[in-house]
Design brief:
The protein has 2 domains: 109 residues, Urease, subunit C, domain 1; 322 residues, Metal-dependent hydrolases (TIM Barrel, Alpha-Beta Barrel), CATH 3.20.20. The protein is of the alpha/beta class and 457 residues long. It has an 8-stranded mixed sheet, covered by helices on one side. Helix 4 packs parallel to helix 5 and helix 13 packs across helix 14. The protein is globular and about 65 Å long. A hairpin with a 5-residue loop joins strand 2 and strand 3.
Length: 457
């Protein structure tokens, strides 16, 4: 396949008249600029092509409860912890078929928003009462099946979740769907790996200890060494209550304790990192780990504001995820990250530099951080990488007459994801004219699943 673009953002910056040769395996085989359209002999021609970022953090099942948790409970304040109780109750209705249907719909929405790949932080493993399925990896396999339907590039991260808190209390209620011990988790992981092995070559797996509060310290050490070359993702420092609990149990704050006990490096993706001291922020920034930010979800849950400006100044790597999937919108995630910095610091263009606009810096960070977190050869339009690409509507009123980094600024701060016309994931052309190629089928199945789930509420 050959794609010709009037303009494209390449590894070495903006170029005109770009010709991309895509191999049958879905990798970028060759990149040429300055090739006239009339001689390119391209299968596809587009006005504006960009690298498509990876979504580094998703809990697909939570998409089904979007919009259903916006009423205040009986207490004086509604918080992350009261939202979590609603989420646990919501879990009671999910069957394996519904897990697959919702996951496929979420992945379709991600692709239509401009993401080419997704890391699924998958922690629902058991039946409603906590009884394991006959095949421990049943629900992991359903997520993989969803990705085969949607065509998204998948990094499947089975989650280890063992206890209800640092005091070792048992899992209760909806948490029982998450639980495993190390032996059963190994079977879940092996089943997930077998499912991914049957998928296209760009799919892969990793390991996800849920958090310090849900994973005992000896188990975390085992998990870190379980797949030493695979991505390793973990929630950390999202809520002040979590920090207080870790400090009370371990005598140190979560990030401080983690770095004292483990060699955190580029295979790690630390999700949220909302509440950091200056020293903790620098530890992450200089480690090579990715700070996995989910600005829309963090806003929805009242988590707090990540210190993006100082983190990037320290040389840190960050990426973007949709987490609870309350709203899947790539451009809005980037905009929300920048606006959160402006609201906190009461200045404008916080994440810009003297040489780089806000939009360009945000987009570059999402591409590079997402690729690293997913363990995916992507993040830039360059020979050898997977052909993870998106095209924008250059004729849009928001983009007309613009060029270079201003195109990204206008898309992120003036437009929205309706400007995304096409997405290729490892060369698979899954979004055309702004619409997923299997939308009707995926949406119909999702509607059936939602009708069944809402009867359980």
């Amino acid at each position: 396949m050959r794609i010709w673009a009037a303009a494209a953002l390449l590894e070495n910056g903006w170029q005109r008249d770009v010709c991309l040769d895509i191999s049958s395996e879905g990798r970028i085989a060759r990149v040429q600029s300055g090739v006239e359209r009339s001689v390119a002999s391209a299968n596809q021609t587009r006005d504006l092509v960009l690298p498509a970022p990876g979504n580094l953090h998703s809990h697909a099942f939570q998409r089904a409860m979007a919009g259903l948790s916006e009423r205040r409970g009986a207490g004086a304040h509604d918080t992350f912890w009261t939202w979590r109780d609603i989420m646990y109750r919501f879990l009671s209705g999910f069957t394996p078929e519904e897990v697959e249907a919702v996951a496929a719909f979420v992945q379709m929405e991600m692709l239509e928003a401009g993401y080419a790949s997704s890391a699924e932080f998958h922690y629902v493993h058991n039946q409603v009462d906590g009884t394991p399925y006959d095949d421990r990896s049943e629900l992991s396999q359903r997520v993989a099946s969803a990705a085969e339907i949607s065509g998204i590039g998948l990094t499947l991260l089975p989650v280890y979740y063992a206890v209800g808190g640092l005091d070792g209390r048992d899992l209760v209620g909806g948490q029982r769907r998450f639980g495993s011990d190390l032996d059963s988790f190994s079977r879940i992981l092996e089943g997930a790996e077998a499912a991914v092995a049957r998928m296209p070559e760009d799919a892969r797996t990793g390991v996800a200890p849920h958090s310090l509060r849900a994973v005992p310290r000896d188990a975390l050490a085992r998990l870190v060494s379980l797949r030493p070359d695979a991505p390793l993702h973990m929630h950390i420092a999202e809520q002040t209550g979590e920090i207080d609990e870790v400090e009370a149990a371990y005598g140190r704050r979560p990030v401080d304790w983690l770095f004292s006990e483990h060699s955190v490096d580029a295979r790690w993706c630390l999700i949220h990192c909302t509440h950091l001291t200056e020293a903790e922020r620098r530890s992450i920034a200089t480690s090579g780990a990715v700070a996995g930010l989910c600005p829309i979800t963090e806003s929805s849950l009242g988590d707090g504001i990540f210190d993006g400006a100082h983190y990037l100044a320290d040389g840190g790597t960050l990426g973007i995820g949709s987490d609870s999937n309350i709203r899947i919108a790539l451009s809005e995630e980037l905009r929300t990250l920048e606006y959160s910095q402006r609201l906190r610091d009461r200045h404008r263009a916080i994440l810009a530099t003297p040489d780089t606009s806000c939009g360009r810096r945000l987009f570059d960070a999402a591409c590079a951080g997402g690729a690293r977190a997913l363990g995916r050869d992507a993040g830039a339009i360059a020979a050898g990488n997977w052909a993870d690409l998106l095209a924008l509507d250059a004729a849009s009123v928001h983009l007309e007459g613009l060029e270079g980094d201003t195109l990204l600024d206008a898309w992120i701060f003036a437009g929205d994801d309706r400007l995304v016309t096409d997405v290729w994931s490892a060369g698979r052309h899954v979004v055309k004219a702004g619409r997923h190629v299997r939308r009707d089928e995926i949406e119909a199945r999702y509607r059936r699943a939602m009708n069944a789930l809402r009867e359980c509420l």
